């Protein structure tokens, strides 16, 4: 079932719900600070593919689990700095590439294995970067399910 609910703090959810009254399936959540999430929910939390846009212009497109960045994705800060790669428990963690706002990657190139948002080992990871970009595009292009209009 799809419907809209406005919360007391002014945030609003439009999308699918499960039989327990939890956000579940595809939906859009507009936070009271005007941050916006569009994508999959599981038992009330962001889970699966989704896109988050923050009031400062930062954005994330990719995989989420238990309400956090988790899996492959692309995060772009409001200043234009970009990370493409693996994330875990809401942090940059795994293989990826950091690109500065001017399009450079730093010297030496900020590509490799990250832990807790810091590059700890330089290595080529073009396959993971490519997969993260594809995942982000899938998140951006997903559409809500069509209601069955044959009654």
Automatic annotation (TrEMBL):
Sorted alphabetically, the Gene Ontology cellular component annotations on this record are: cell projection
Please provide the record's keywords in A-Z order.
Cell projection, Repeat
> Taking the first listed entry, what is the main subcellular location of this protein, grouped into a coarse class?
other
Q: Is Transmembrane helix a UniProt keyword of this protein? A: no
State the Gene Ontology BP annotations: response to axon injury
Q: Which Pfam families match?
A: MORN
Note the SUPFAM superfamilies from the entry.
Histone H3 K4-specific methyltransferase SET7/9 N-terminal domain
Q: Where in the cell is it found?
A: Cell projection
Q: Mind telling me what this protein is named?
A: MORN repeat-containing protein 4
Question: What organism does the record attribute this protein to?
Answer: Adineta steineri
């Amino acid at each position: 079932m799809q419907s809209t609910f406005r919360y007391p703090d002014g945030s609003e959810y439009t999308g699918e719900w499960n039989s327990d009254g939890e956000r579940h399936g595809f939906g859009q959540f507009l936070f009271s600070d005007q941050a916006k999430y569009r994508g999959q929910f599981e038992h009330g939390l962001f889970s699966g593919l989704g896109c988050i846009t923050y009031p400062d212009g930062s954005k994330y497109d990719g995989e989420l689990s238990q309400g956090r960045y988790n899996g492959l994705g692309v995060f772009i800060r409001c200043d234009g700095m970009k990370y493409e790669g693996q994330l875990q428990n809401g942090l940059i963690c795994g293989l990826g590439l950091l690109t500065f706002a001017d399009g450079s990657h730093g010297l030496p190139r900020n590509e490799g294995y990250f832990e807790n948002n810091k590059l700890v080992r330089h290595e080529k990871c073009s396959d993971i970067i490519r997969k993260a970009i594809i995942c982000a595009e899938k998140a951006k292009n997903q559409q809500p399910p069509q209601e069955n209009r044959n009654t």
